[in-house]
Amino acid sequence: MRGGEALIKSLKDQEVDVVFGYPGGVLLPLYDVIYDSDMRHILVRHEQCAAHAADGYARASGKVGVCIGTSGPGATNLVTGIATAYMDSSPIVAIAGQVATGLIGNDAFQEVDTIGMTMPITKHNFQPMNSQEIPEIIKTAFYIAGTGRPGPVVVDLPKDVQEQELDMDKEVRIDLPGYKPTRKGHPLQIKRAANLIANSKKPVILAGGGVILSGSSEELIKLAGIIDAPVVTSLLGKGSFPEDHPFSLGMLGMHGTKTSNYMVDECDCLIAVGCRFSDRTTGNVAEFAKNAKIIHIDIDPAEIGKNVEVDIPIVGDAKITLSSLIKALNQNNTSGNTDEWMKYVQNFKRSSSPRTSFNDVPLKPQQVIKEIMNATDEETIVTTDVGLNQMWMAHYFKVKHPRTFLSSGGLGTMGFGFPAAMGAKVAKPETDVVAICGDGGFLMVSQDLATIKEYDIPVVICILDNRYLGMVAQWQKLFYEKRLSHTHLGEVPDFVKLAEAFGVSAYRVEKPGEVQETLKNAINSGEPTLIDITIDPEEILPMVPPGCGLTEMVGEYKIEIESADGVPYYREAEERAGD
């Protein structure tokens, strides 16, 4: 067979059932094979959306997602999505077309150094120089992408290699002597961790995205129950621990909940699982968990000690390591010695619960998100864009299951939410999928309304429409004397008319109660739908300024307090750093 046929056969051998792509001149041999193949190909309208869709597919399903783009600008358009997947440890294989081998390095038409460009943002990349290499490269790419700490792998595919003949009768074997991820935590370190936990009075568990990637949510819940410890999460860890659980404190960090930030500041033992202690999680590292001994469990040894000094490092898969830690705690008859701590935590949590019900017009985002929660069930997959819409969702939307909250964390990629929802829906066609987008981010990828219409991918897009680049405008309001430099988006487009131009059903909502009803109807319709939600452009979210500790939160804070007679009332406070 020829190289293009070998590539498609190799993808099928890896149980790939769908690819997201966009053809081009150097990919003609491959796409000619796809023409006769039964593999599902979804033609996106921009290569960045192909990468984000493959990423959303991977995050929702746990399988490796696949995207394809042509050489030159096709490959460069994939780069943002590849970097997004790399920062968030999402397993995708990106196939980029390349000019013929004899032209590589000659600045040929639509040639770029894809290998050089993607080296810093992939786990590995490959460039087969003859067709015989393709089967082994594809098998290896999937193995690397999906094992250890997951991540993207790029295959840069020259045109002539797609056309060369090869023999595929041989069994495909891979040999990676330098790639052996440590999965089992060191027994001595686990014993030390168990002893430290047993002697702690104020423990907190920090769950990151690694808990979801390793499928260790059950072990996390069991650990929290054994030691009676509250649980905070990173943005990517959201969903690893049910947020309706009494031990859940919500997200930690720059835009985290007040309870999470304060309890981590006060804890004496922090058990971090599958997180990388990013700057958005820790705030000022010198002030982070300054009273705590820190246990850090992660499959990537490069992350341990990189940002935060830890007392007990454990390299290993979160599921395997947590199981061993639970066993060690049970052998020591360790039970929670944290009654006073948990009382204090729960009282603080009650006194710091944010207000979520508003009758205001324009709509408050808190009210919008409450209605979104009421219109969806706990199995619904929600994706977000990046910016205030993302932080409002992270703050107020309660997630109960892993792989149901998909968001761009490390790279903070505007435009992620919509194409990621597209990929998630393809991965989970029986599950409702709702994309929560900002107006700015959605405009970066709105052309792929054509894709969900043409392929009948019934995602519902909710645009939180404040006509601002909300997060940047918030920083300008708080730190730049309200000098709103180029963050107002103007009054175009009309999102309802834009969607209708693509043949997508669309609605505008402006009053309390309308979001819930409209979203329910949209989900039940089984059709691609856009809902344009007009929200208050002045609403901001409390945050920790750069360089500050987690307790130094600024911005308006509306706090619900339960009075003695059980009736909640509200107080409003301006909290400023240092006050």
Explain this structure to me?
This protein has 579 residues and is an alpha/beta fold. The protein has three domains: 3-163, 3-Layer(aba) Sandwich (Rossmann fold); 187-351, Rossmann fold (3-Layer(aba) Sandwich), CATH 3.40.50; 365-534, Thiamin diphosphate (ThDP)-binding fold, Pyr/PP domains (Rossmann fold), CATH 3.40.50. Helix content is 37%, strand content 17%. A six-stranded parallel sheet has the order 2-1-3-4-6-5, with helices on both faces. A six-stranded parallel sheet has the order 9-8-7-10-11-12, with helices on both faces. Helix 1 (3-13) packs parallel to helix 6, helix 3 runs parallel beside helix 4 and helix 15 (365-375) packs across helix 16. The longest helix has 15 residues, at 47-61. The termini are far apart.
**CATH class of the largest domain, please?**
Alpha Beta
Q: Report the principal-axis shape.
A: globular
Question: What is the overall number of helices?
Answer: 22
The amount of helix comes to 25-40%
Strand content: 15-25%
Q: Which segments are poorly predicted (pLDDT under 50) over 5 or more consecutive residues?
A: 556-564, 567-579
Second rung of CATH, namely the architecture of the largest domain: 3-Layer(aba) Sandwich
Largest pleated sheet: 6 strands, parallel
> What integer is the average pLDDT?
94
Question: How big is the Rg?
Answer: 24 Å
